[in-house]
Amino acid sequence: MRSDDSMQNPATRYYRPGLDVVRLIAFLLVFFGHSLPGPPPFRIFNLLGPGVAALCELTIDCWRFGLSLFFTLSGFLIFELLQRERHSTGSIGVKQFYIRRILRIWPLYYLALALGAMWAFRFGSGAADLPALGWFAVFLGSWFVNAHSWLGNPVYPLWSISVEEQFYLLAPWLAKYCSRRLLFVFCALVVVVANCALYLVATPTDEDARVWTNSFIQFECFAAGIFLSLYLNGRVPMMRAGARVLAVVGAALSWLVAAHFLSSFYQPSSHSSSWQLMITYGLAASGSGLILLAMLGFQGGPHSRWAIHLGQISYGLYVFHRFVLDLFEKIPMEKTGINDFHSHVLRGALFFGVRVAAPLLATCVLAELSYRFFERPFLRMKERHRAIISQPGETVESSVITAPR
């Protein structure tokens, strides 16, 4: 594997279109995980045989690792940009870093919380949701879900934004004052802490949310992204197409094994130990790192502009998708006439159209409108505080976001 673009000759511009494609892939994994949550739509897999059906269901379980991919991407890109800033300017503007993050994350985030409050009084449990929204407002949503389970409100995926913001409390200070060697040590310590947390809190009888939303556990993915950034040291891997395919295959195998371990861990009759979850989360992080490695050298082209653009508006896609899905779920399936069809294939296709394709299209339209008419003014303000240009041409810096369960 060759590489170029060494950190020894840093530029003030860093943009990799492949990372926008990674954002889109991660979002789609999350979206499919939320839009097709249960086994009934996949009974058609049984027609393919028990082995193929089991593999398909295991693949569906991998959708949750879209979150791991988002976190790993965030750790990688934040430290890549901060290290480039440090090499270019001799230091890191911590204040400017926080201004950039606030202008990118907070406006749409708090708009979503306001919509969540309106939703609670229109469709949900009213004032009962307000304490939870208060936790989310101070970026402790992950710990609320950890303590109280999933929130019955479309804002619940934003718990992962809380994890992201907690990561930001450390990121610029570490990048400013720690050498590369100390950062490697920090990544190792994060992995140790994450696995200690898994050992202490995970039992087969625990609810999944108690482990999945634990910030200390999810920080392992950030550590994987930071490690990849440190390892490459500003270089872009020049991999042949075959090597990229192997990296993606390796990521897929890692996630499939992780999904198998995770699924068997929470079986009612499971005799699994915390070691199984340690392997699961380690494989989720390492698989995400392999995907980043495979996509870093991707330059894009006319055929991939749509994917790159959707990756650039993925923050809006992520914020709005649960609202859209919940609205579509209020459409009674019996009124659509889908259940009148006897063909499993036809019923599955129609179900996909109503529960997946239509909500996905609506989410894309809503995110595009938000990006053009709501987010752009804040992004223009954000440009004044940037140290490294991370978008092509004169466009604004691409966001670093996370995804939900």
Shape: globular
The arrangement of helices and strands along the chain is: EHHHHHHHHHHHEHHHHHH
- Please give the alpha-carbon distance between the first and last residues: 34 Å
Low-confidence stretches: 6-10, 394-405
Strand content is under 5%
For the secondary structure, the number of strands is: 2
Briefly note the structural class of the backbone.
mainly alpha
Q: Multimeric state of these chains?
A: single chain
Rounded radius of gyration (Å): 21 Å
How confident is the prediction overall: mean pLDDT? 85
Main sheet strand line-up: 1-2
Give a brief description.
By secondary structure, this protein is mainly alpha-helical.
Keywords:
405 residues; mainly alpha; 17 helices; globular; disordered C terminus
SSE layout:
Blueprint (H helix, E strand, L loop, with lengths): L1 E3 L12 H19 L14 H12 L4 H24 L4 H29 L7 H8 L3 H8 L10 H10 L2 H7 L2 H22 L6 H5 L2 H18 L3 E3 L2 H25 L8 H22 L9 H8 L1 H16 L3 H4 L7 H40 L22
Antiparallel strand pairs: 1-2
